[in-house]
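R.M. (postdoc): so does anyone remember the format we settled on? I'll just put the structure tokens first.
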């Protein structure tokens, strides 16, 4: 009669810590999806519209992410990854509490400062998470990427549903204070979370990662994610305001359609990851681009909630397969895992995801809110071109 081999306590603790770190991507999605969901509660769909201020909000959030990613390196040199995770959660919590007390009619520049602090917390968090999941990634890269993406999408969905549930029943201050409890809870969870870091001897030198980042392939991948995240977040950041102004939906209806968009994006990515080994990638890509373009046209021409819902459905499903395709290609092209390298690509993608809606704010102030759909339409075509260039580059180099 055989007996089970006992698993050492340290091994169980490290596995648990890695799982908690991976779940931290839920918090990352929660923090970054907040702005698109909170804009109706702040009243930016009403006349006179101040779309320039909204553009400043997204831009400051993006600048904060870059600043946090840079500051994270020096913090980790003095402390450890576990400290950085807790510190990032603390900054994010304080930033949300601060934003709760500077809602309109307070000056928009006060909210710009708060959103920059929130972006800094998200940038610190992302860097710490990429280091904390290094051991898990090297053990099972595909499962780690898919699970991390699922947690991230769930965080975006959770933030939107929370605001939708409270948008009429409570003040904006109460909503943001309740949202601040989420990073506070993660911070408490990470206080005693063990983090296993892959020894530097098992990782490539940072110089090698930097050289790879300068290669044509890595630049194309980074640009692809830059524009793709820009497409996704242009819709995520502006969809409620667009629907409120063009179709005159209620705030909770517009937010529920945004939540449906996040749901389609999240479940579509999981489905795409399952069918990728069994389906020709070119066929999946063409279907995805066609779906996204059709969704853009539906959103632009619709005048009712059903058309808006179907537009969000086709956009979410169309955008869903792009990330799994790119993640699989990055895994093949760069089989090693270096936290700084992957965080650089991810941060650049997030920056694109926030610069695009910022640009939409400035464009919408001059051209009207209809441009919200036009720019993702162009961005989808750019993504198609970049994917073809990546395919051509891989054929030429034999990689």
């Amino acid at each position: 009669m055989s007996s089970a081999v006992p698993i050492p306590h340290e091994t169980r603790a490290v596995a648990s810590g890695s799982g908690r770190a991976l779940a931290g991507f839920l918090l990352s999605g929660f923090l970054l999806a907040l702005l698109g969901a909170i804009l109706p509660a702040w009243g930016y769909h009403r006349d006179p519209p101040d779309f320039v201020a909204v553009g400043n909000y997204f831009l400051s959030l993006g600048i904060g992410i870059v600043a946090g990613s840079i500051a994270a390196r020096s913090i980790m040199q003095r402390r450890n990854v576990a400290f950085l995770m807790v510190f990032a959660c603390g900054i994010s919590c304080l930033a949300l509490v601060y934003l709760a007390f500077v809602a309109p009619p307070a000056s928009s520049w006060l909210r710009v400062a708060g959103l920059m602090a929130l972006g800094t917390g998200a940038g610190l968090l992302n860097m710490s998470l990429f280091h904390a999941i290094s051991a898990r990634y090297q053990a099972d890269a595909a499962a780690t990427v898919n699970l991390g993406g699922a947690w991230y999408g769930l965080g975006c969905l959770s933030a939107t549903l929370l605001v939708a549930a409270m948008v009429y029943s409570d003040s904006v201050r109460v909503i943001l204070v309740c949202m601040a409890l989420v990073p506070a809870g993660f911070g408490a969870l990470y206080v005693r979370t063990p983090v296993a870091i892959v020894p530097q001897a098992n990782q490539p030198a940072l110089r090698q990662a930097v050289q790879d980042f300068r290669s044509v392939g890595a630049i194309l991948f980074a640009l692809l994610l830059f524009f793709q995240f820009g497409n996704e977040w242009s819709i995520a950041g502006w969809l409620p305001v667009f629907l409120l102004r063009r179709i005159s939906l209620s705030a909770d209806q517009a937010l529920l359609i945004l939540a449906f968009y996040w749901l389609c994006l999240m479940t579509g990515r999981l489905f795409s990851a399952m069918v990728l080994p069994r389906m020709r990638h070119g066929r999946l890509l063409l279907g995805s681009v066609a779906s996204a373009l059709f969704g853009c046209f539906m959103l632009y021409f619709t005048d009712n909630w059903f058309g808006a819902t179907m537009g969000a459905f086709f956009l979410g499903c169309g955008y869903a397969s792009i990330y799994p395709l790119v993640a699989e290609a990055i895994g093949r092209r760069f089989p090693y895992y270096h936290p700084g390298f992957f965080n650089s690509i991810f941060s650049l993608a997030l920056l694109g995801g926030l610069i695009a809606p910022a640009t939409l704010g400035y464009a919408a102030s001059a051209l009207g809110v209809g441009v919200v759909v036009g720019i993702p339409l162009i961005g989808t075509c750019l993504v198609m071109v970049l994917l073809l260039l990546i395919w051509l580059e891989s054929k030429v180099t034999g990689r």
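R.M.: ...and that's the designed sequence above, right after the tokens. Also worth knowing: Confidence is low (pLDDT under 50) at residues 1-15, 200-206. The radius of gyration is 21 Å.
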